[in-house]
Amino acid sequence: MLKADEVVRELQKRYRRRERKEEPFYTLIFTILSQRTRDEQTEKAAERLFKRYSNAEELADADIKEIEELIRGVGFYREKAKSVKGVALRIKSLGGVPDTIEELLKLPGVGRKTANCVLLYGYGIDALPVDTHVHRVSNRLGLVSTKKPEETEEALKRLLPEELWGYVNDLFIAFGRDICKPVAPRCRDCPFRKGCRYYLHTTSHITVA
What we know:
By secondary structure, the chain is an all-alpha fold. It has two domains: 4-16 and 129-200, Helix-hairpin-Helix base-excision DNA repair enzymes (C-terminal) (Endonuclease Iii, domain 2, Orthogonal Bundle), CATH 1.10.1670; 24-123, Orthogonal Bundle (Endonuclease III, domain 1), CATH 1.10.340.30. It contains twelve helices and no strands. The chain has helices at residues 4-14, 24-34, 39-52, 56-60, 64-71, 77-94, 101-104, 112-123, 132-141, 149-159, 162-178, 197-202. The relative contact order is 0.15.
């Protein structure tokens, strides 16, 4: 059976995590835009948006239609425009981006993944964002047996020392795109296949060279 800390430490040898830290408000808006959207589209939309509106105060006063046009290209851009506007209004009234998960979750359109991204990348606080890659990879390897990303987050926190929480999102995303793909995972190239629940289950009835 694979151990979560050993998996993370092996992935540290193969992949890099992104720089910490970024401006909290930028991280917050970028993560909202990134939901169900490819990175390159998110980056282009965020660049257009922040070129026009550089802070929460300016964005709070923006016309919703203009926000829609600036972020067009990301998935569900009309709904996200409303979330972006709502978040900006709230941040303006608060005087800054909250630095606790409890307060971040009170913001419109903000779930646990987004809140954890703000803590991790915006404030440099050890947090454990769980997206679809992290959820899939964790369950596929057999590190956890969970149905929802929120359950995966809590399970991984119990399995990992806190100093490794901040590595999970970047490393599992990289591994999930490179080897442990959603469709046709490259099991032959996987360093964990001998202990992987998915691999052992799918090859248990055939002879593997």
